[in-house]
């Protein structure tokens, strides 16, 4: 059983993981090394594909002090060689005596680290603060276990549920504060997906920007994905050199998701427009909804979602997880439910 000192170290490891920038397609991981007397030796974190994993980062900081130490890690140490070597073996070679970890690795290609450690005589304590550790990588865990990216759909609408005026204009419905808030969520995804209709209507850049509305560096940008069969002129901003762009000439969600899986994408940020969102909604592949409601009415125009509902029995519930005022707007975060038609009888 983990000691109070180890639980406290796990909290610090979780904080170290949360403090990192987007690490997708890899998970966020933090590691704290403790001396036999419980004092902290080093803290490490993973910072993205190709960089040292959290355990190796901590071991490099600790040096010879790692021998006989306890490693407290948010995720089971990996057991495979990719761009970097297996962390389980690195811990063994460093002479670590005990490993405490939170989430069991759900990735079949990387799991098994605990078994390797035990076989080498290292004491292992799994499942410490497992719920918090799993929450750290909800989207990544979903992607590696389901075989498709996690999909977050973002939309902005008036109080009467309209995202564009009858003439197609939609920029801007919500406030500047809401648009800044969106950047925080965009940065957590590794692909931003929009339909050709929305791109032609608004000419968005589909990038992550900082507080001064300046694009982040190219290497920190998610992949921009434009979906649809309509040709987009090459002078549109989505083709600038700020971020990479992928065109997918299909609106079929299965085709889009398969293409993105092949490109190593774990978390999609889906926005604009209602036809593309409707296709994903109808296919049942939207996993989270983030909606921004402006305190305004249009009275007529285009709905935020073009689905296939024909009767009230087609109503689907949204399980609300968060409701927050962002400037003058309301931000709603929820998870789509799966309600049976007979529930309305």
UniProtKB/TrEMBL annotation:
<keyword id="KW-0521">NADP</keyword>
<comment type="pathway">
    <text>Cofactor biosynthesis; riboflavin biosynthesis; 5-amino-6-(D-ribitylamino)uracil from GTP: step 2/4.</text>
</comment>
<dbReference type="GO" id="GO:0008835">
    <property type="term" value="F:diaminohydroxyphosphoribosylaminopyrimidine deaminase activity"/>
</dbReference>
<dbReference type="Pfam" id="PF01872">
    <property type="entry name" value="RibD_C"/>
</dbReference>
<dbReference type="GO" id="GO:0009231">
    <property type="term" value="P:riboflavin biosynthetic process"/>
</dbReference>
<dbReference type="GO" id="GO:0008703">
    <property type="term" value="F:5-amino-6-(5-phosphoribosylamino)uracil reductase activity"/>
</dbReference>
<keyword id="KW-0511">Multifunctional enzyme</keyword>
<feature type="binding site">
    <location>
        <position position="206"/>
    </location>
    <ligand>
        <name>substrate</name>
    </ligand>
</feature>
<keyword id="KW-0378">Hydrolase</keyword>
<feature type="binding site">
    <location>
        <position position="202"/>
    </location>
    <ligand>
        <name>NADP(+)</name>
    </ligand>
</feature>
<dbReference type="InterPro" id="IPR002125">
    <property type="entry name" value="CMP_dCMP_dom"/>
</dbReference>
<feature type="binding site">
    <location>
        <position position="186"/>
    </location>
    <ligand>
        <name>substrate</name>
    </ligand>
</feature>
<feature type="binding site">
    <location>
        <position position="156"/>
    </location>
    <ligand>
        <name>NADP(+)</name>
    </ligand>
</feature>
<feature type="binding site">
    <location>
        <position position="78"/>
    </location>
    <ligand>
        <name>Zn(2+)</name>
    </ligand>
</feature>
<keyword id="KW-0862">Zinc</keyword>
<comment type="function">
    <text>Converts 2,5-diamino-6-(ribosylamino)-4(3h)-pyrimidinone 5'-phosphate into 5-amino-6-(ribosylamino)-2,4(1h,3h)-pyrimidinedione 5'-phosphate.</text>
</comment>
<dbReference type="InterPro" id="IPR016192">
    <property type="entry name" value="APOBEC/CMP_deaminase_Zn-bd"/>
</dbReference>
<dbReference type="Pfam" id="PF00383">
    <property type="entry name" value="dCMP_cyt_deam_1"/>
</dbReference>
<dbReference type="InterPro" id="IPR050765">
    <property type="entry name" value="Riboflavin_Biosynth_HTPR"/>
</dbReference>
<dbReference type="InterPro" id="IPR002734">
    <property type="entry name" value="RibDG_C"/>
</dbReference>
<keyword id="KW-0479">Metal-binding</keyword>
<feature type="binding site">
    <location>
        <position position="271"/>
    </location>
    <ligand>
        <name>substrate</name>
    </ligand>
</feature>
<keyword id="KW-0560">Oxidoreductase</keyword>
<feature type="binding site">
    <location>
        <position position="53"/>
    </location>
    <ligand>
        <name>Zn(2+)</name>
    </ligand>
</feature>
<protein>
    <recommendedName>
        <fullName>Riboflavin biosynthesis protein RibD</fullName>
        <ecNumber>3.5.4.26</ecNumber>
        <ecNumber>1.1.1.193</ecNumber>
    </recommendedName>
</protein>
<feature type="binding site">
    <location>
        <begin position="273"/>
        <end position="279"/>
    </location>
    <ligand>
        <name>NADP(+)</name>
    </ligand>
</feature>
<comment type="similarity">
    <text>In the C-terminal section; belongs to the HTP reductase family.</text>
</comment>
<comment type="pathway">
    <text>Cofactor biosynthesis; riboflavin biosynthesis; 5-amino-6-(D-ribitylamino)uracil from GTP: step 3/4.</text>
</comment>
<feature type="active site" description="Proton donor">
    <location>
        <position position="55"/>
    </location>
</feature>
<dbReference type="InterPro" id="IPR004794">
    <property type="entry name" value="Eubact_RibD"/>
</dbReference>
<dbReference type="InterPro" id="IPR024072">
    <property type="entry name" value="DHFR-like_dom_sf"/>
</dbReference>
<keyword id="KW-0686">Riboflavin biosynthesis</keyword>
<feature type="binding site">
    <location>
        <position position="170"/>
    </location>
    <ligand>
        <name>substrate</name>
    </ligand>
</feature>
<comment type="similarity">
    <text>In the N-terminal section; belongs to the cytidine and deoxycytidylate deaminase family.</text>
</comment>
<feature type="binding site">
    <location>
        <position position="87"/>
    </location>
    <ligand>
        <name>Zn(2+)</name>
    </ligand>
</feature>
<dbReference type="GO" id="GO:0008270">
    <property type="term" value="F:zinc ion binding"/>
</dbReference>
<feature type="binding site">
    <location>
        <position position="209"/>
    </location>
    <ligand>
        <name>substrate</name>
    </ligand>
</feature>
<feature type="binding site">
    <location>
        <position position="172"/>
    </location>
    <ligand>
        <name>NADP(+)</name>
    </ligand>
</feature>
<dbReference type="InterPro" id="IPR016193">
    <property type="entry name" value="Cytidine_deaminase-like"/>
</dbReference>
